[in-house]
Amino acid sequence: AQSVTQLGSHVSVSEGALVLLRCNYSSSVPPYLFWYVQYPNQGLQLLLKYTSAATLVKGINGFEAEFKKSETSFHLTKPSAHMSDAAEYFCAASSNDYKLSFGAGTTVTVRA
Amino acid sequence: DTGVSQDPRHKITKRGQNVTFRCDPISEHNRLYWYRQTLGQGPEFLTYFQNEAQLEKSRLLSDRFSAERPKGSFSTLEIQRTEQGDSAMYLCASSKGGSLAGELFFGEGSRLTVL
Lengths: 112, 115
Description:
By secondary structure, chain A is mainly β. Chain A contains no helices and eleven strands. In chain B, β5 and β6 form a beta hairpin.
C-alpha cells in the first residue's frame, strides 16, 4: 500500500513569495502521484499529476511539481503566491487504477 | 452544474440513529468512489464501484456501513447505528473508466456529526 507524508501541516507565505509544499511517498515502485487543492467549502480539485512521463509536471494556476525518484519526493511549488492560493493542499499516490492514498494535507495562508 | 453532487451537505444525528448519504456522479462517469475525511487528515478510501458492481471495500467500512449503486448511476452510503467516531466528512468522487488513477472529480462532501 502507498503511504504519503506531507511535511508541515501549515505554511504561511507573503504574497509574491515562493510557495513550496513538500510531499514524500513510500513505495518500491514509483506510483502515480497527484496534488489536489481544496478551497473553503469546495470539493477537492486536481492540480496536477505525475504518470511516469516528464518528471517536471505543470499544473493549473501556475503550480508545478517535480518527481525525484532518488528522494521519493514530489514537492509542489509556485514561484509567486497570490491571495487566491490560500487553501488546503493534498498530495496523493496510487499504484493501481482506482485507489488513492492521501497525505494529511498542508494549509496555505497568504499574507498581504 | 454538471459536477458531482452530494446530499445532504450536513447531517446532525444522535448516536444509534441511521443515516444515508446520496451521491450523483458526473453523468458519463462509470466509476464512483466514497472517501472519508476526518479533521486534520487527508481523505481515506472507503469503497469503489464500477457501474453497479462494488469492486473493493476498505477495512474502514465496518458492517454498519453499506454502499449501493443500484443502476450504475447515483450511489447511497448508509451508516446504521451511528457512533460518535463516525463523525466525519464523507466524500464522493467519480471518474471515467480507463482513466488513470487519481483523475477523480470530487463532490463537496456530506458532513456528519454524531451527538
